[in-house]
Specification:
The structure is a single chain. This protein is an alpha/beta fold. α9 links the parallel β9 and β10. The longest helix is centred in the last third of the chain and has 27 residues. The protein is globular. The structure holds 5'-O-[(R)-(carboxyoxy)(hydroxy)phosphoryl]adenosine and zinc ion (ZN). 5'-O-[(R)-(carboxyoxy)(hydroxy)phosphoryl]adenosine binds next to α4 and α5.
């Protein structure tokens, strides 16, 4: 008998619902909240209120898209954390209500496990073990993925996440939130070595981005003092330089670990894996070492429910269901 999982994602400002049958994604709906751009960041209270409206709608839409009746569901999987507590509570409560009403088991999914397993949504898929760099707005982690649900952390950020660094620097340039994709877009044709920016000085396989952000701010201030039109005149070069520094830092760590261990497969997942320089640098680095590299399709890089449904499927197979008393974990 097929295992049909409904996945619900509401950890931040994207509301998502997806269905997977025996680990194959058959519907994936996401509704991105645009209201936060004007505030320069996600406003948690507004995000959770909007989720109250969006979560039921995306679930309805995903069911309609798949043609699967509610009666055919095996279990309901939902993002239980990490994320914004108000946003998580909306998805969690909806999942609980639906599971209770339909008499179905509940599966609580860690959002970061979801990002890691997003690399299994489409072909080609990696085999175990593989090295995985998770780069999102809230997290930057290098881990060895030993099995669908078993990961060993190799390194993590000591302060800001890579996406956060993109977004904070983008804000300094006047881009609306989230500015990572704007930096990517404006980098095209820019000189990646134009602006002298430091490489964060962190040992081992950990990451740090707060010093880079501060250096970026001070460099811009100095340049703008000398030439008030510096930013508009050199926007592409500025974006390309910042992007190059972040991407090089990430990839240097990933490949240093790969070179040390001889691991032959690697993946990059999470919102920042949508970045074109990161994608091409990663592919080049893998090719140079005879490694196989995997990156999810764009729609599965940023937050989505397909990865939650798929992770829910693997947890359900392992008997990892949860009680209705479970409360979401924000951190
Ligand atoms: O995974 P995600 O959708 O949400 C979190 O779990 O945080 O990641 C969002 C992050 C944001 O910081 C956004 O600016 C960044 O991913 N991002 C990008 C690009 N597209 C999204 N950063 C750089 N280049 C991009 N093309
Ligand atoms: Zn995410």
């Amino acid at each position: 008998m097929s295992v049909v999982i409904l996945g619900i994602e509401s950890s931040c400002d994207d509301a998502g619902a997806a269905l997977c049958i025996d680990g194959r994604v058959v519907a994936n709906i996401v509704s991105t909240q645009l209201q936060h751009a004007q505030y320069g960041g996600v406003v948690p209270e507004l995000a959770s209120r909007r989720h109250q409206v969006l979560v039921p709608l995306v679930v309805k839409e995903a069911l309609a898209q798949s043609g699967i009746p509610k009666s055919a569901l095996t279990a309901v999987a939902f993002t239980a954390g990490p994320g914004l507590i108000g946003s998580l509570l909306v998805g969690t409560s909806f999942a609980k209500g639906l599971a209770l009403g339909l008499g179905l088991p509940l599966v609580a999914v860690n959002h970061l496990c979801g990002h890691i397993l997003s690399v299994f949504i489409d072909e080609p898929k990696p085999s175990f073990p593989f090295l995985c760099l998770t780069v999102s707005g809230g997290h930057t982690t290098l881990s060895v993925v030993e099995d669908y649900l078993t990961y060993q952390t190799v390194g993590t950020t000591l302060d800001d996440a890579a996406g956060e660094a993109f977004d904070k620097c983008a804000k300094l340039l006047g881009f609306p939130f989230p500015g990572g994709a704007q930096i990517d877009k404006q980098s095209v044709g820019g000189d990646p070595h134009y602006l002298p920016l430091p490489t964060p000085d962190v040992g081992g396989y950990d990451f740090s981005f707060s010093g880079l952000k501060t250096a970026f701010l001070y460099t811009l201030q100095k340049k703008v003092k000398a030439n008030p039109n510096f930013i508009p005149e050199h926007l592409q070069d500025i974006c390309a330089s910042l992007q190059n520094r972040i991407v090089t830092f990430l990839l240097d760590k990933l490949f240093a670990y790969a070179d040390k261990t001889g691991i032959k497969q690697a993946a990059v997942v999470g919102g920042v894996s949508a970045n074109r320089a990161l994608r091409s640098g990663f592919k080049e680095g893998c090719a140079a070492r005879g490694m196989q590299g995997f990156i999810p399709a764009f729609e599965y890089c940023t937050d989505n429910a397909a990865m939650i449904a798929l992770t829910g499927y693997h947890q359900f197979r392992m008997g990892q269901t949860c009680e209705h008393t479970l409360t979401p974990w924000p951190g």
